[in-house]
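Duplicate of #3305? Posting structure anyway:
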């Protein structure tokens, strides 16, 4: 079974990694799909996001990292994937994911979503928290891996 794990990954967190590693054990093939055409301003460029993901996922041979733009349902069909995987940390995530899922199904009824509960250890972890803590020079080691923490520090040192 081939699944897509889509997201903004600005930057990839320990929570994302937890879901990707578990998906890699469950499914034959996992495509981590980095969204590019966002209106939201991003801290990292798409090539930087992909590089960080590739550094982390080097040892997972059934995981590939790709970028996508446009609708997720179109990417899923182009990739001939069976389903989309999303991580759920909280009840708020569940409500959001449910709406996203209903919308995606209204666009393409052939798409399935598989929700994995993020390990409790990562329930508070998000890319936006990692960016915010790093912007104030705080310790992000619980939120992101060392390669990502280094790049976050470099971003804020450069712009400050
Ligand atoms: O990491 P995120 O920001 O929670 O990921 C959201 C993502 C990328 C899964 C979602 O925004 C998405 O699928 N965007 C692609 C455009 C699309 O298909 N829009 C319709 C559903 S929101």
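Output from current build:
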């Amino acid at each position: 079974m081939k699944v897509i794990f889509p997201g903004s990954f600005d930057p990839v967190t320990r929570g994302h990694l937890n879901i990707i590693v578990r998906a890699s054990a469950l499914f034959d093939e996992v495509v981590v799909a980095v969204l590019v055409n966002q209106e939201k301003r991003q801290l990292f460029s798409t090539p930087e996001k992909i590089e960080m993901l590739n550094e982390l996922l080097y040892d997972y041979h059934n995981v590939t990292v790709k970028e996508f733009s446009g609708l997720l349902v179109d990417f899923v069909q182009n990739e001939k994937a069976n389903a989309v995987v999303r991580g759920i940390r909280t009840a708020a995530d569940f409500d959001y994911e449910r709406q996203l899922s209903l919308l995606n199904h209204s666009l393409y009824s052939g798409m399935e979503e598989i929700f994995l509960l993020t390990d409790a250890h990562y329930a508070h972890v998000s890319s936006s928290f990692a960016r915010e803590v790093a912007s104030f020079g705080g310790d992000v080691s619980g939120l992101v891996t060392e390669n990502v923490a280094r790049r976050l520090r470099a971003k804020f040192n450069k712009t400050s």
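Confirmed duplicate; merging threads. The CA atoms of residues 136 and 156 lie 8 Å apart. DSSP finds six helices and five strands in the chain.
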